[in-house]
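Onboarding guide, step 5: your first structure request.
Type a short instruction followed by the sequence, for example:

Predict the 3D structure of this protein.
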Amino acid sequence: EKGRAILEKNKSAVVTIQVVMKVKLEMKGYNQPAQEMKQDITGIVIDNTGLVVTALSGTDPGQLYENYYANSGGSGESKPKWQSELTDLKILSPDGTEIAAEIVLRDKDLDLAFIRPTTKPEVPPTFIDLTNSGEVQVLDQLITLNRLGKVAQRVYSASIEHVDAIVTKPKKFYIPGSEATATRNGCPAFSLDGKIVGFFVMRTAKGRSSGSAADNVASIILPAEDVRKSALQAPAAADKPKEEKKEDKAEEKTEKK
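The system replies with structure tokens like these:
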């Protein structure tokens, strides 16, 4: 009952982000042509201006791939180099409307990308208030929200997760259980009293490790307070001064003619 109440209150703030990118792999003896990749990722609206936060690794996986393979070995020319270029980005609203958007801030350390609609929303959207955050303990249950894919008619879903461990240094984050659920990176996690606990992102170990690559990358729950502090750096609006200047010059030439 608590989980259903959390879903009903917050589901409209969970959005699908449609991403189109070009991904290229380069390494010694192998040079893969850039390939177009399309995917849907999950994000949440975090203020009344329509600012959305999602996992940066979903919009720019190049850095994640490089860290993954760096930990598994390889150096110099033999080290794989991944390049990813974002070519199109849209937010899918609850009613199915596609909203043009762009990334206004990237936080590589926290694996966060902040996205704004290119046009200000006419009606303030439902959002999740990151200041109303809570903390949980090991083995506590969490409620996570997601929006499923096209095959499932993009319905909203809720899952029950639990906290396996808590890392406190150098920064605090939660380790979720490994059970298979509909939760994925970009999903919000709530305590049973309805407070936002955090946000699912990817984390990779830094530096060469003697373990396997799989031991050095994991999906974690980043505390909501860290997301809130990072969001404070996001520009108030999408800034396109260069494009505006080009249009102004074109208008000036037309007027002169």
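Each response can be followed by summary notes, for example: The chain has five helices and 13 strands.
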